[in-house]
């Protein structure tokens, strides 16, 4: 029995030594493996950060040129914008402008561009109404009020160059009805702040008013006692609204209104109006 026990004990001992050796190797490998990811991870992370930093540095290297090009393009766009703004800038009050550029729904029927006026002749050939921009702004207020009532303004005459005033005098040289430009110089229509105007429905049909254009009878004045009640009411409505906007009326013609702001006369000889 003692021999057998020693033999078993010796084999077991050898086996135990071998087993312990294997376990020690395994543990040592496991510890080294556990430490490597942490070391490698930080190294890789640091390396990656370094690579990214280099990539950022490399990618940003051409940036100054790109930024310069962008800045140049931006400056060009800004210059174009400024140029456009200058072109589309709001006019000065004393600028002569086409009325329908700023009041598109106003009606224009220039009587002196046709034969339908007291002279029976065409006085000027332009078809659009022109006024000072400051006057147009006042007229816009009146148009807004009329629109709320289903009405609209219609212009019979507006800015009249001095040469057109001369043509009017040449066609009808009667100082009772026409101002002689050689004696009086500029008249109110030559200032660009005076308008001969009426009111119609939005479809262009007429409403009752004292008279038509260039009627020189007593009914054309602002007395209105010789008009029907409806004609008088409509004329007073126009008169009150124009007055509220800053216009003064001429006593002898219910359709004639002048801006209270004064402007210089214009001849515009050689200038073509549309």
Structure in words:
This protein is of the alpha+beta class and 274 residues long. The chain has 2 domains: 2-87; 96-259, Muramoyl-pentapeptide Carboxypeptidase, domain 2, CATH 3.30.1380.10. Helices cover 47% and strands 12% of the residues. It has 6 helices and 7 strands. The protein has helices spanning 2-60, 63-87, 133-147, 162-171, 181-184, 229-245; strands spanning 96-98, 107-108, 130-132, 151-157, 194-201, 247-250, 253-259. The chain has a 5-stranded mixed beta sheet with strand order 2-4-5-7-6, covered by helices on one side. A two-stranded antiparallel ribbon has the order 1-3. A hairpin with a 2-residue loop joins strand 6 and strand 7. The longest helix has 59 residues, at 2-60. The radius of gyration is 47 Å and the shape is globular. The termini are far apart. The relative contact order is 0.10.
């Amino acid at each position: 029995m003692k021999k057998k026990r020693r033999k078993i004990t010796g084999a077991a001992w050898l086996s135990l030594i071998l087993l312990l050796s294997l376990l020690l190797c395994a543990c040592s490998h496991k510890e080294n493996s556990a430490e490597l990811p942490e070391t490698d991870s930080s190294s890789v992370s640091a390396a990656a950060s370094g690579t990214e930093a280099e990539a950022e540095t490399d990618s940003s290297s051409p940036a100054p040129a790109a930024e310069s090009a962008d800045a140049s393009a931006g400056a060009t766009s800004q210059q174009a914008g400024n140029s456009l703004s200058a072109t589309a800038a709001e006019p000065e009050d004393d600028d002569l402008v086409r009325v329908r550029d700023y009041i598109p729904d106003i009606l224009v029927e220039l009587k002196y561009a046709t034969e339908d006026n007291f002279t029976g002749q065409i006085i000027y050939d332009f078809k659009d109404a022109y006024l000072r921009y400051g006057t147009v702004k006042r007229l816009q207020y009146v148009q807004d009020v009329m629109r709320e009532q289903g009405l609209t303004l219609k212009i019979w005459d507006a800015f009249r160059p001095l040469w057109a005033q001369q043509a009017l005098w040449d066609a009808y040289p009667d100082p009772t009805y026409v101002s002689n430009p050689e004696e009086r110089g500029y008249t109110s229509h030559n200032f660009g702040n005076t308008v001969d105007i009426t009111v119609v429905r939005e479809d262009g049909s007429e409403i009752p008013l004292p008279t038509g254009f260039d009627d020189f009878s007593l009914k054309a004045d602002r007395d209105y006692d010789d008009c029907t009640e409806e004609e008088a009411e409509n004329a007073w409505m126009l008169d009150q609204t124009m007055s509220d906007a800053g216009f003064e009326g001429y006593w002898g013609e219910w359709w004639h209104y002048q801006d209270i702001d004064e402007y210089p006369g214009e001849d515009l000889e050689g200038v073509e109006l549309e």
